Amino acid sequence: MPGQYKLSDEPVPGYRLSEFLGRGGFGEVWKATAPGGTEAALKIISLSGKQGLKEFQALGLVKRIRHPNLVPIVAYWLKDQAGNVLDDAEADLDQLRKLVSSSATLKGTMMLDPKMQARPVELIIAMGLGEQDLYARLEECQRDGLEGIPQKELLGYMEDAARAIDYLNSPRHNLGAGLAAVQHCDIKPFNIMIVGGAAQVCDFGLARMLGDVRKTATAAGTIAYVAPECLTKNEPSSATDQYSLAVTYVELKTGKLPYDSEIYTEVVNAIVEGKLDLSMLSEAERSVIERATAVDPAERYRSTVDMIGDLRRAVESGAMPAARAPRRRSGAWLPLAFGVFSLGALAGWYFWPEPETFDPDNGGKLVVENGGQEDPPKDTDRLPVDGTTTDVEPEDGHEPATQAVLALAKNLVQQERYDEAINHLKPLLSGAKLEIEEEFEAYLLRGTCHLEKKHYAAAIADLTEAIGLDVRDARGDSRRDEAFLLRGTCYFEKALYKDAIADLSDAIDLNPDPNDVRAYSRRGLAYFHDGQLDRAIADFTTALDIAPSEVDYINRGKAYDGKEDLDSLDKAIDDFTNAITQNSASTEALFSRGLSYLAKSINPKTDALRRKDDLGRAIRDFEAVERLDPIYPDLAAMKDQAESLMAAP
Q1: pLDDT digits (tens, 9 = 90+) for 292-329
Q2: Rg of the chain, C-alpha, whole Å
Q3: 3-state DSSP call for residue 76?
Q4: Which of 45, 79, 569, 635 could form a disulfide with 122 if both were Cys (CB 3.0 to 4.6 A apart)?
């Protein structure tokens, strides 16, 4: 069902909604009547979390890439909290990135609250509108009694998609840092549209620039079509999209995916071990698809067009393609990297969202969401491998591979599907035989889920179990620092500040990374709320020495402000000024600096001339906040007080 929009609404000028097409993990898609009476698809994406920002970042890669077999991006807009379309979407990207990265909802903290600022909250993308996706075409053919899409028709679509893929994959795109290649990373029937009898590839929400191995990125895709390197290495190769198109061909030709089972973990094993079931294909077709789905990307075709060319020759003549080197297979299960699949049950061809790298602490500023009533648990061990979830019970006697269950749980955490993650971890923590590292990981993950849902007692219990396991990394360093960090966060949330300080101190002592500021920032907050201002200042200073941030400048400034002497108030003003330098639209920093100027003006040690100057500065800061957010809490009262003092003789 649609959300805030309804039929005939005009989300952006000139685009009137005419049909609801589907909902995804963080937005919805509509058919819209565009200016001049043409039709377009509008993808409406919430920017309330990092997934929306990642969609914006992927858009930045592909927005100017044009090809006859790529669905065109017509335009895009950002809208603010009031529903206004922002004039310059490009100029707002940096502000949007800052706001998402600094968001936090820890009660009672001094962290920047982006909800108090005028900011982009919605991304709307206008795209070309196709007639139907290839999966819908497959279903249409099956209703007519066919096994799959007719061979001649299907090969035409595959050639179109292959040309689009090779164009994306070639290092010809100027993305701001020289020419680069782009991997789509989510090729599947749902993302190939039929437009006027030809095929166009769409939905670039997972697109990645090859060579971009930043930890914040992921090579995630839909599990049924994902290439093995994305599971084992969490990064695409130059032939990742070729692999996915080969699996797509099998499904569209035969009506079935190339797996012996629909059990999630067995599908994963089949992919990483190169054991696809291609028995439904002819011998000539099998040879082509085996090469295109080789576990080693180097053994695949040099181009996707070459692969489809061999496939057409194999189908039309029955001849085997040219010989190649023997294919290597991995003989054993390969452990999965953090957060590598997308399993969201999403509607329509436009939505298959990018999972986030497993990071329960969001850069040290924990975002605690989904605090409502817990949903009934669902068993999703057995999955339709098109990427959707179902409530089918697991087969009797089936024990999924522990590493695969942990990987799935991590992915669910990334998608903020905490109840499902808890449900998947339950069998592992209910008598299953686990290695100590696996048990630690399971308790840490479930504790993270409970913390995100604000089930503090359950979170503390799980994190305490994790802390009791002396797990170490390859260098011999303890891995318990993360568990102490999260349990300390639970105690902080419960206002048990001394317990929080103790755990966060252990996290600092055990953490082998000297550049990790999270525990220092959080312990500084705990010290502040416990009234230990000097210790709070010391922790914020350490964090700022490692990595200057707007949030820690504001936090230290408020700690200095709490000391109330003139020297400390001057230091507070300096910190708030540094925060404003980093973000000129920070209402929190502007308002706090105004309060410090006001406090200085009424300090008995401030002389009369200085008092007027401080009051003037306070009023200017309050006026700046008023321009950004007229209903900022306590703003009117503080501004009235400053103006009254200024008017007094």
Answers
A1: 999 999 999 999 999 999 999 999 876 555 544 333 33
A2: 28
A3: strand
A4: 79
